[in-house]
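Slide 14.
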Amino acid sequence: MKSESLTPKRGQVSFALVALVAFLAGVVGLVGFAEHRLSQLVVGGLGESFSTRVYSAPYAIGPGHEPPPRELLERLARLNYVQVSSAPAQPGQYAYQPPAVAVYLRGFQTPAAVETPGLYTLTYNGSSWDIRSSSGPVAQASLEPEIVAELSGPNRILREPATSAEIPDMLKKAVVATEDKRFYHHWGIDWHAVARAFWADVTGKGVLQGGSTITQQLAKNLFLSPRRNLRRKAVEAALAFYLELRYGKDRILTLYLNHIYLGQDGSYSVAGVRSAAKFYFGRDLKDLDLAQCAMIAGTVRSPRRYNPFLDPDAAKQRRDFVLHRMLEEGYITEAQRAAAAAEPLAVKARKPRAPEGGRDDAYYVAEVVRELSDRYSEDVLYTHGLLIYTAMDPLLQRAAQRAVLRARPQGALVALDPRTGLVLALAGGRDFEQSQFNRATQAQRQPGSAFKPFVYGAALESGTATAATVLSDVPRSYPRQADQTWDPRNYDGIYFGTVTVRDALAHSLNAATIDLAHRTTMARIVSFARKLGVESPIAPDLGSALGASEVNLLELTSAYAAFDNGGFAVKPLLVLGVMDAEGGVLEVDGPRRSPQISPQLSYLMTTLLRGVVKSGTARSLPALGWTRPAAGKTGTTNDGRDAWFVGYTPQLLAGAWVGDDQHRPIRATGAKDALPVWAAFMETASADSPDDDFQDPGGLVRETIDPASGLRALSGCPQRREELFLPGTAPTAYCPLHPGGIRGFFKRLFGKS
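Slide 15: predicted structure.
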């Protein structure tokens, strides 16, 4: 029997040769790519940075969005379309010959949609647009998203490179100890860290970890997009190894410390340790002491989270952690650590720059950045050329920010599409340059009576009460603790004795609301608020029924959406998608809503909240210029510390808050202070919208009742009211307080009891 030859076959040799050639070609290509990018480095090795841009939502003209010609022309002007006298011949041009607008749309791409350029003719008939493309009639035409902010880029980076000799040795040691303790002992990849991170990730023990070295971080920042996949990680590792071959450790560390993102001054990125030294301490690098070096090193992990201007406690804790790591690595003594830890942060006083886009967009953009900072490293977020697409409507955002200027001493406003939860506008304060604290999302305040709709909704849904149920509106004490009582009182000290559910909500009667909450139980009320979107902790006691548990404005406002949209809870959504500099989709999101209450309950709650506007605590709304259909609820807390109004139309939902940052009593009320802010915004936002009324979904039972008894009215009842009831809840008994028949009719006619 012949033995098989050990000589490789021709096909095997050919395959191996092809594989070798391909490998070498890949290596050559990778090296060429790296060298090309390295040649673009500026003095000191800062590297190339790309502008991260934030966009508004596209604006679709068609059903649901029928702006008059004036608004359409304004939107075109904001997008830098050029008006021409003849037919538009290229993208970015338009011609206006009333009532028609001919526009050559540029087209656009977002993570969720692609629109090609095209010529459209839009003809306005007084209330809607007839839209035609070159191929015939179409349902809608879409304007491209508007750039509302530019977070970084060549002209928005505060950068001053430093040589290795100019960087304090203690700063280098602080960064190495914290970010890559085996930096001087590996060739770009720390296999110990990789194994540890892999084990922690797959076993779920502890938080998710990463194994990137300083060299890998530098390779990622200099060469790669933020797209996360195995191929990119492999290329990152290869480039890190190449950097280790190409440069020495000191050169790599210098490049890293000059390139690393270390903070944000408004729309300006702070890049490199020399800029950070001036930004945080007003000092040059050579003048930094150990404590200051440790603080700067601490910000590398998250410049936003450990920003001493925004959260000095977190910055100090992080600085002390860095000092502890330096002690463990033998870089400093215990005496040095203790002395540095005892020092105050000593950051310089500063006034933040306003983000690009001006004051109108600042709070919205800042909230988008805050949200994305949980999903992207901050150097990626600010310097990797991301394209961030939001739900913002620029015209509504401008109206929201200007409306908040009416607030005293501080205010906030959010506006959502109630059908989708898209956050169309968000103003977190009067002036972003004076305070970057976002009162729409970060402030937790008591909502007062603005929480009451959840009490009434839970009662109606559970069958505890109907809109006609009679409540007790009298002073009453409730046990609170062992030997204490709670004595809720009506705001104006006036009590009605008995009152229907509808009137109790319209006039925001505390005593009657507590009576209803006691009957309904707080467990049901908390459950009802939770399923509509209130996520903040709610204490399970009766005080929460009057709004004693704290919430933020955005969550409270979005929780009202189910009353407006037929019963769907929505998730407030600011970010619609993110793309990288190469056009790759990093994430995409869309409306998230779920049915939580019946359409009948939704409409019934709207009729109750319309009563607040028609005859209750918000009845001053017409005097503020608002005459359209609207529903909503005011809220006022003790001593007027917080004032609220959350209200809506069939097309738009908005909430306004007015108060003081130090939580001091300012004698504000929902009607006097928050309602005017809401009205100013809504008047602008709805100026060209149709006066559509809320649509009855059908299925509700109508019955004429006597509000004194809450039962079916007789001919002798002096007050008669048509009331709505959920199926199966209408009263069957007649009013026992007044006579019926002919006798009752004449007694009512002649005013006799």
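Speaker note: Residues 10-39 form the longest helix (30 residues).
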